[in-house]
Design brief:
Rossmann fold; four-stranded antiparallel β-sheet; Alpha-Beta Plaits; alpha/beta
Length: 271
């Protein structure tokens, strides 16, 4: 993890969809937020971004600023963050849990998936609801980020979780979080592309932006699973996502909504 005094250089970009993994010198992490994308660097990156904008003309720089990493952690933390039966902390501390509550200790660094974003909250609620009525033993988490959904699934009762991400820093962050939460033996982290051949599982978790979903669901891939939790898109895209789902997929109603972001619990009826 970074030193609290390490300076972060943060660039706010509007428009466009970043590639699944950005290989830019000094890039620490990427945060998508509605129409904006935030890039975190270890040093000033104006020259690097000039080249990026030439290759990705859909983006424009709206503002940039810098802060110590410790300040970013303070801004990112609201503790404990209670989401359904989960109590989330970002630093070691004593937490009094209510009966049935599950503690998640997630240090996000600058990787997406702290529990603050509505898509993460929606997926955690969906996991809690699903495990109240079903017990998927094998879980596949695509775009795992900090590993928060994979860790939550393991703590809910999954025996084997495979968590995939293209970003090597996400993999190292998720590995550290799995160790903190005592689930390293149950969660296997894979650096890879979600569009490649995927491991078998009963439950598929996909919390990735809408443009990825459009490509990912263009085929029968969903029918290989028993359940799916799908997030990462705004309410205005819900009708289109329903159109993309194969006939084997039945959405549990009502859908979950967090500040305009939608999460679906889907049962695959071909099984």
């Amino acid at each position: 993890m970074l030193d609290p005094e390490q300076t972060l250089y943060v660039y706010e970009l509007k428009g466009g969809v970043p590639p699944a993994y950005l290989e830019l010198d000094g890039l620490l992490g990427v945060w998508p937020e509605a129409d904006y994308t935030y890039l975190f660097f270890t040093s000033p990156a104006e020259a690097i971004l000039e080249s990026f904008f030439q290759q990705h003309p859909g983006f424009s720089l709206t503002r940039h600023y810098q802060m110590p990493y410790g300040q970013w952690q303070q801004l990112a933390a609201q503790e404990p963050l209670i989401i359904d039966r989960f109590s989330i902390i970002t630093r070691q501390q004593s937490v009094e849990l209510m009966p049935g509550e599950i503690l998640l200790w997630i240090d996000p660094g600058v990787i997406f998936g702290s529990g603050l974003h509505p898509t993460t909250r929606g997926c955690l609620r969906a996991l809690s609801q699903l495990y109240a009525e079903a017990r998927p033993v094998r879980v596949l988490d695509l775009g795992t980020g900090t590993g928060i959904l994979a860790i939550a699934a393991a703590k809910l009762g999954a025996e084997q979780v495979e968590a995939l991400d293209l970003n090597p820093m996400a993999i190292s962050t998720a590995a550290a979080n799995c160790e903190r939460n005592g689930v390293s033996d149950m969660v296997r982290l894979i650096r890879g592309d979600a569009r490649d051949h995927l491991p078998d599982a009963e439950l598929l978790c996909v919390n990735i932006h809408f443009d990825f979903l459009e490509v990912f669901f263009d085929g029968p891939v969903l029918c290989n699973y028993r359940w799916a939790i799908i997030g990462g898109f705004l309410k205005e895209k819900l009708a289109r996502v329903r159109e993309l789902l194969p006939s084997c997929a039945k959405v549990k109603e009502p859908v979950l909504e967090e500040k305009g972001w939608i999460t679906l619990i889907v049962k695959i009826e071909s099984h």
